[in-house]
Amino acid sequence: MVIPFVQNRRxxxxxxxxxxxxxLALHFYRLHQADDSPPPEMTPxxxxxxxxxxxxxxxxxxxxxxxxxxxxxxxxxxxxxTVVNVGPRAGVAVKRGVLLVRIDARTFESNLSALRxxxxxxxxxADYAEKQQARFDSLLxxxxxxxxxxxxxxxxxxxxxxxAHALADQIATQRVNL
Length: 178
Description:
Blueprint lengths: L1 H35 L46 E4 L14 E3 L2 H36 L5 H31 L1
Helix pairs in contact: 2-3
């Protein structure tokens, strides 16, 4: 009884060795056959061709690309404000006179209105100071007041007129910004 068990044990060890040996032999045999076979046939791609002809382009060519403009302009406003309208988007060709950006003008309009009121007040102040200077000049002729009072009135009139001119310049600047 011991003998059949020993024989079965030998087969258990020999079977995997035989299977591995057979697999390696088959692998090397096929590898040798692959070296002797001709290379696979290369089939050309399916391409559309057309003869080259001289002529003008009738349509347009669409392609995906990045184009660098020869001239790039950066816009920066001279005034601050809220943007209420944006014209053409980035990358779109624009012509002269096309609105690019509109800034809310209500702040500038209210500032302009306030400057006009200040100008009217400064004009009235300048007119009063000039009339006061004329009165002081006539009083000086009568020796009713001193020269320093006349000089003071003259200085006040010039200062008031200069203030009115400065406000007029600010109004002109505000109109340009508007």
